[in-house]
Amino acid sequence: MQFENFTELKSIEPFILDELKKHKTEFPRNRKFGKELTINLKWADLGDSRASVVGYFRYKDFMMNCRVNKNALYPLIKKMPVGSKKLNSFFFNKPFRYIYDQEVLNNHEEAMIWVFAHELWHFLCKTKQAKGNFETKANKFGFEMLRKYKEINNKVYSLL
Q1: Could you count the other beta carbons within 10 Å of the beta carbon of residue 145?
Q2: Which residues contact 50 (CB under 8 A, 6 or more apart)?
Q3: DSSP string covering 33-87
Q4: How far apart (Å, rounded) are the C-alpha atoms in residues 23 and 61?
Q5: Crossing angle, helix 135-159 and helix 108-126, to 10 degrees?
Q6: CB atoms within 10 A of CB 92
Q7: Domain layout of the chain by residue ranges
């Protein structure tokens, strides 16, 4: 696995690397050639855009790019669908309704953790380590990991 952090957010590296140890990240016997996961943490040059995070996982070359808008203003409320509920009738021409979850992002570190976890879910599904490659499940995984990071971070700060 290759991990590169092109930001000043060095405090999140131990947490991310610890989470990655729980999953298989190298696949030496792929169809044509061996594949190794490459993760890049970068700043996004989005100007004053409302988008705070941008990320993608590209299966073709096992590349995960996680970017956070350097100009984002915090605290920022991240509200995303994490599931759906089937309805008996149609709601705006849909037989389901989204279930939303939200979390407050207090800084760039927390935003980067969320986008990393979201893209990690897509990687885990593509490599058959998890089931359900849907945006809602990736969002839920992102929120769960963000809460875990906040819990660990709060314990560390309370000890100081």
Answers
A1: 20
A2: none
A3: S-EE-EEEEEEE--TT-S--EEEEEETTTTEEEEEEETT--SSEEEEEEEEEEEE
A4: 18
A5: 140
A6: 5
A7: 2-159
Amino acid at position 12, single letter: I
DSSP conformation class of 2: E
In this prediction the pTM is 0.86
Tens-digit pLDDT profile for residues 115-151: 999 999 999 998 888 898 899 999 999 999 999 999 9
Contact yes or no for 140/83 (Cβ under 8 A): yes
Angle at 142 between CA 139 and CA 144, to 5 degrees: 110
The amino acid that residue 96 corresponds to is F
Q: Which of 54, 56, 49, 103 is nearest to 72 (CA)?
A: 49
